[in-house]
Amino acid sequence: MSTSVVPRHRKIRSHAATDPLSASISVRQHTVVLHGTGVVDDRSVRLWKRTLDTAADSAPHPHGEVVIDLRRLRFDGPSGLAALADTFQRCRTADHRLSLAAVDPDVSNALRHHFSCTNLLTYADTQIAVKRAERRMHARSRTARADDTRRDYEHLEPLLEQLAARADDPGAQRRLREEIIRCALPLADNIALHFSNRGERSDDLLQVARVGLIHAIDRFDIARKSRFLPYAILTMMGEVRHHFRDRTWPLHVPRSVQDTVMQIRPVIAELSQRLGRAPTPREVANSCGIDYALVVDALAATNACHTLSVVNSTQGDDSTMTLADTLGDVDPGYDVIDGCLTVKALTEQLPDRERQVLRLRFVDSMTQTQIATQIGISQMQVSRILRRTIDQLRELTPTD
Questions:
Q1: pLDDT band at 314 (very low <50, low <70, confident <90, very high)
Q2: Is 112 within 8 Å of 120 (Cβ atoms)?
Q3: What is the pTM of this model?
Q4: 75 has which bridge partners?
Q5: Cα–chain center distance at 200
Q6: How confident is the model at residue 209 (pLDDT cuts 50, 70, 90)?
Q7: pLDDT beyond 50 at 224
Q8: Complete domains list, the chain, with CATH
Q9: Is the pLDDT of residue 144 over 80?
Q10: CA distance 80 to 68
């Protein structure tokens, strides 16, 4: 996780002789983390208050999170706890959330019962406190975005009511429908963006999401008194998921395997971010709660999502060699080798003169007259030897 620091690990130190107070403040996205060491007593309480004020002022607005690590802090007297309680009330007024990490039970009880710090969040570990704070920030951000989205599209429902009421006027109904589609197009764009990291072209996803939007507008029944926005989002997301299931597989993959692929994709992304590496099939299976063999089949099937064209260049756009040029073909030389081996085994069974005549005729390419002159027989005898030898070879050749 990237850390932006405002200020980055700002150190505040007291010069007391015994256990001096020291603190560092950092900001992780929307969460302020204060780490303190030493003793908070009457001599260092002023520095402690200034440190707490700095941490509260560093919290982003609105809905900031402040986490104070008390693991190496010790309170000597009530003044330090009173300053902590004042910061808690100040954060509540500013709509911030204050959490204490590695806090002693006596300290948390004193803050709750003697300083009226109700709803104080305490955690045993600083990392847990920071993660919980960031989760609350993300949840509030999602809620705020959802509220903004609802406000942006609230005006569509009155238009849909007018669309249903203009059934007897096709011209007005067509104009209203086009206006609703135009106003809701950003919503379809957001749905397409949500699925943009799955290997499919963004233009195709945008088109499918907009088709889902048109289906949602045409099928929405205003008489049911339901909200249009949730219905439209579900319809568009369903249309995009059907597109991935039915049209993005170049090879035939069973439906059950496709469903498993869709199930493990978000789990793999989450595990990769959490572990900092690609998860193993066993880890994915344990996280999803499905059988290990199904995960292995689904991971193997993901290779069927994308194929390469054999006409694509293999060495860049300027190369004339395509992938088809690199693919192997049946070599006719294998048949020649098989024939040579068969003839060699058969000719070894022939007499020496017959083998000599065959070699001179078919290897040295000599005529029958030349063969007759070389071995001292007539041309007619050479012809008869060749015919008789070839017939004998045919009989010896295996029929299979």
A1: low
A2: yes
A3: 0.44
A4: 40
A5: 12
A6: very high
A7: yes
A8: 10-140 (3.30.750.24), 153-247 (1.20.120.1810), 255-329 (1.10.10), 333-396 (1.20.140.160)
A9: no
A10: 13
* Terminal C-alpha separation, the chain: 70
Q: Counting every residue, how long is the chain? A: 400
Instruction: Give the pLDDT mean for 18-47.
Output: 84
Omega within 30 of 0 (cis) for the link into 7: yes
* Number of other residues whose CB lies within 10 A of the CB of residue 293: 10
Q: Distance between CA 168 and CA 217 in Å, rounded?
A: 18
Q: Which two tokens stand for residue 297?
A: 């089949």
What's the rounded Cα separation, in Å, for the pair 90 and 52? Answer: 10
Distance of alpha carbon 354 from alpha carbon 64, whole angstroms:
103
Cis peptide before 62 (omega within 30 of 0): yes
State pLDDT tens for residues 95-122: 888 888 888 888 888 888 877 787 778 8
- 3-class secondary structure per residue, the chain: CCCCCCCCCEEEECCCCCCCCEEEEEEECCEEEEEEEEEECCCCHHHHHHHHHHHHHHCCCCCCEEEEEEEEEEECCHHHHHHHHHHHHHHHHCCCEEEEECCCHHHHHHHHHCCCCCCCEEECCHHHHHHHHHHHHHHHHHHHHHHHHHHHCCCHHHHHHHHHHCCCCHHHHHHHHHHHHHHHHHHHHHHHHHCCCCCCCHHHHHHHHHHHHHHHHHHCCHHHCCCHHHHHHHHHHHHHHHHHHHHCCCCCCCHHHHHHHHHHHHHHHHHHHHHCCCCCHHHHHHHHCCCHHHHHHHHHHHHHHCCCCCCCECCCCCCCCEHHHHCCCCCCHHHHHHHHHHHHHHHCCCCHHHHHHHHHHHHCCCCHHHHHHHHCCCHHHHHHHHHHHHHHHHHHCCCC
